[in-house]
């Protein structure tokens, strides 16, 4: 398709894993895995990387992405919102390429275990279901109705969510999901006008746990590398 833009947002100031976006993972920089997946889908007119780092930009271009701008400092801080960063990349891309995109797909560089069929299937599902946007998630390992707890201001411990009737087996609890920050699909109107990833018509694409790990720590990095090597 020619009216679909792909963005990959990767800032240089990672804290949990130093320089994680360009750290070598199974033989290539972390961000390269996501760029190659995006290109392999054949869905996108452009694959654009948003970054504040010259080193990340150089790596992204080397693996086939396009980097035509440097992200503003306020959008590369620890407090910058993900949605604002994605929207910025989308608006800049329309202006730079002189065209209007009907859909935007954002892929997180820190979730390299997804595969190409996940990207294609999530996009097709969003289009076919007529969603404003779509997020990806995996089935929760903990349930707020059964074994996910909170502590209130008085120090009292209780379940995060309660039902009228107590749940004695996890299997009987309502289904819940953990967002995996892997794939986001947006219509143009939704990315330009929405203030949240949760809208009245947000779709959900469910992925298995083994393709849903988001690298946020050294342990995550080692686990992802283990799983990648196991696939080979």
TrEMBL record:
<dbReference type="InterPro" id="IPR050793">
    <property type="entry name" value="CMP-NeuNAc_synthase"/>
</dbReference>
<dbReference type="InterPro" id="IPR029044">
    <property type="entry name" value="Nucleotide-diphossugar_trans"/>
</dbReference>
<dbReference type="Pfam" id="PF02348">
    <property type="entry name" value="CTP_transf_3"/>
</dbReference>
<dbReference type="InterPro" id="IPR003329">
    <property type="entry name" value="Cytidylyl_trans"/>
</dbReference>
<protein>
    <submittedName>
        <fullName>CMP-N,N'-diacetyllegionaminic acid synthase</fullName>
    </submittedName>
</protein>
<dbReference type="GO" id="GO:0008781">
    <property type="term" value="F:N-acylneuraminate cytidylyltransferase activity"/>
</dbReference>
């Amino acid at each position: 398709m020619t009216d679909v833009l792909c963005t990959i947002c990767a800032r240089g100031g990672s804290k949990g894993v130093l320089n994680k976006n360009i750290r070598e993972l199974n033989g290539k920089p972390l961000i390269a895995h996501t760029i190659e997946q995006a290109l392999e889908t054949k869905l996108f007119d452009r694959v654009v990387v948003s970054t504040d780092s010259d080193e990340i930009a150089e790596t992204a271009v080397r693996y086939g992405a396009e980097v035509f701008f440097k992200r503003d400092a306020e959008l590369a801080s620890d407090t910058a919102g993900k949605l604002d960063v994605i929207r910025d990349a989308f608006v800049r891309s329309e202006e730079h390429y002189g065209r209007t995109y009907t859909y935007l797909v954002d892929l997180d560089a820190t979730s390299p275990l997804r595969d190409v069929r996940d990207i294609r299937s999530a996009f097709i599902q969003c289009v076919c279901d007529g969603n404003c946007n779509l997020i990806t998630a995996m089935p929760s390992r903990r349930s707020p109705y059964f074994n996910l707890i909170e502590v209130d201001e008085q120090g009292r411990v209780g379940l995060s969510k309660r039902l009228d009737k107590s749940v004695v087996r996890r299997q009987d609890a309502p289904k819940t999901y953990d967002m995996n920050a892997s794939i986001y699909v947006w219509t143009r109107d939704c990315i330009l006008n929405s203030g949240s990833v949760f809208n009245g018509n947000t779709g959900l694409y469910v992925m298995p746990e083994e393709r849903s790990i988001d690298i946020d720590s050294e342990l995550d990095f080692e686990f992802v590398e283990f799983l990648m090597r196991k696939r080979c």
